[in-house]
């Protein structure tokens, strides 16, 4: 397993207040010390969060950090995507995470030009050829809107064939779901890296909310243990560290080509897992 090239990355969301901007700067400085391959910054559906993504990305790029902006179909059209690609290309950004996104309630559907992430990947390739290394999303526990697991896999294969270079998964706590998904994708002809997404556990209520929304399953035994810990944050963190670090150990031992951490803009929970895994500090 030591011969595979691994990619480690840390995801942020754009901060919404001056205080959050300061906190993110502190987190990114701490996380940069372990030299991840890249940081990524999520992209929302509304105007101000989108501006937040662009300014966070440009600030990090100017600070010399490797950064990959997320871009999404929702609320986008050819012109807005073209403009975004130009903005990033002009400063020398070479990696993107291309997504469909989710429609916030009350927001009208965007241009039918970009219905699925595969449309966006195709467009980015047509517009900018090989300039960008394109990451896309994958769902080892099946995308919540997919009709069947088989259709979801075919849609994933289509998205990779549209020109993606690599995939990052939704987070999960069941390593077998990931290992089987990778096996099925390989059988379907996808040979690009599929990097597991990792969610550190710090807050049960928040984790349960996210997991319900994105279709990530919290196994019953974990749910029961976390519920029993109530508001005891320290014990939740200790339990979460134990569980998530062993998940990562197993994934890396089974050949996962890296890890993508959903940092929630916090350095400590990710660094605790990093150090438990014995990754270079
Ligand atoms: C690593 C990662 C990063 C993310 N970052 C963001 C972010 O920054 N901003 C954000 O808003 N969201 C983000 N998300 C969430 C993501 O936008 C949602 O999960 C969204 O619902 C699906 O996006 P996708 O790119 O996977 O969509 P797609 O690949 O387009 O798939 C969406 C659904 O459509 C189906 N489908 C795909 N193609 C077809 C087709 N041709 N015909 C019929 N059905 C089809 C798929 O099976 C799936 O059910 C992220 C998710 C991940 C895993």
Mean pLDDT: 95
What is the top-level CATH class? Alpha Beta
Percent range for helical residues? Answer: 40-55%
Bound heterogens, unique: flavin-adenine dinucleotide
Outline the low-pLDDT stretches: none
How many DSSP H or I helices? 10
**Count of DSSP strands:** 8
Per the CATH scheme, the topology name is TIM Barrel
C-alpha Rg, in Å? 18 Å
In sequence order, what are the helices and strands, one letter per element? EHEHEHEHEHEHEHHHEH
Strand order of the largest sheet: 1-2-3-4-5-6-7-8
| N-to-C span | 21 Å
Domain module tally: 1
How would you portray this structure in words?
The chain has helices spanning 18-32, 47-62, 78-91, 117-128, 149-161, 175-187, 204-214, 220-229, 233-253, 268-276, and strands spanning 7-12, 38-41, 67-72, 95-99, 133-138, 166-171, 194-198, 258-262. By secondary structure, the chain is α/β, with parallel strands linked by helices. The protein has an 8-stranded parallel barrel with strand order 1-2-3-4-5-6-7-8, surrounded by 4 helices. Strand 3, helix 3 (78-91) and strand 4 form a beta-alpha-beta unit. The protein starts with 6 loop residues before the first strand and ends in a 5-residue tail after the last helix.
């Amino acid at each position: 397993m030591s011969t595979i090239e691994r990619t480690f990355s840390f995801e942020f969301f754009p901060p919404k207040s001056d205080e959050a901007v300061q906190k993110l700067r502190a987190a990114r400085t701490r996380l940069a010390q372990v030299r991840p391959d890249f940081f990524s910054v999520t992209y929302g559906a509304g105007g101000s969060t989108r501006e937040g993504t662009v300014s966070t990305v440009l600030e990090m790029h100017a600070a010399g950090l490797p950064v990959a902006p997320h871009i999404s179909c929702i609320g986008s059209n050819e012109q807005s995507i073209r403009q975004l690609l130009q903005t990033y290309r002009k400063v020398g950004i070479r990696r993107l995470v291309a997504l469909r996104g989710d429609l916030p309630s009350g927001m009208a559907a965007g241009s039918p030009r970009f219905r699925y992430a595969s449309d966006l990947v195709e467009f980015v390739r047509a517009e900018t050829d090989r300039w960008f290394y394109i990451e896309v999303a994958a769902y080892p526990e099946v995308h919540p809107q997919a009709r069947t697991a088989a259709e979801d896999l075919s849609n994933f294969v289509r998205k990779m064939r549209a020109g993606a270079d690599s995939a990052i998964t939704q987070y999960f706590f069941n390593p077998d779901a990931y290992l089987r998904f990778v096996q099925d994708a390989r059988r379907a002809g996808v040979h690009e890296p599929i990097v597991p997404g990792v969610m550190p556990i710090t807050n049960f209520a928040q984790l349960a909310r996210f997991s319900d929304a994105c279709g990530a399953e919290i196994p019953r035994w974990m749910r029961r243990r976390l519920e029993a810990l109530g508001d005891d944050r320290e014990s939740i963190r200790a339990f979460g560290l134990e569980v998530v670090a062993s998940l990562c150990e197993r994934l890396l031992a089974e050949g996962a080509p890296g890890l993508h951490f959903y940092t929630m803009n916090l350095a400590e929970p990710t660094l605790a897992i990093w150090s438990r895994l014995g990754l270079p500090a």
